[in-house]
Amino acid sequence: MDRFKSPKIQTFEILTQVMLAHDIRPLEEGLIENLEDFEWSSYRHYAYGIHDPLVTEPRCYKNLGKTPLDRQKAYRQLVCEILAHDIQDPKKFKCWVYSIGDPLWVIKRSHEIREKMKNIQRHKQKILMMRRRKITTNQTPLSISREQ
């Protein structure tokens, strides 16, 4: 069994983008109407200071301001800016990130994932064709007449 492989996030800028993307995604997917409503997100902690024992504030968040209130306000502002851009260009911020790290490793990993997805798709198609063959070969004239 493969172990969980968490990619390394190399810069604070990218880490901030990933944090924001994860917090905004439930809204983009239509799961919620307000970011504050999604209790499984870190948004309420970062934007309003609501304690969450699962959240450890990274340095990139602490760099947003000198005080907790400054950081919360800055985080909310970042979210507002992203949502404003989404209205203008919905594809701009949406990202499906599978790997984050060294560009050469990311490219290699992306190719591996694409190949795995192609193999999975081929396998699904084979199974579907086998099922179709089985259905057509197992039909007797009696079963065909019942279906008609």
Care to describe what's here?
- The chain folds into 2 domains: 12-88, no CATH class; 103-140.
- 61% of the residues lie in helices and 0% in strands.
- It has helices at residues 12-28, 43-48, 59-62, 68-88, 103-138, 141-147.
- The N and C termini lie far apart (48 Å).
- Mean pLDDT is 76; it is low at 88-97 and 140-148.
Order of helices and strands: HHHHHH
Distance between the termini: 48 Å
- Quickly give the structural class: mainly alpha
> What is the strand tally?
0
Topology:
Layout (H helix, E strand, L loop, with lengths): L11 H17 L14 H6 L10 H4 L5 H21 L14 H36 L2 H7 L1
Gist?
By secondary structure, this protein is mainly alpha-helical.
Q: Which terms summarize this structure?
A:
single chain; 148 residues; mainly alpha; 2 domains; 61% helix; disordered C terminus
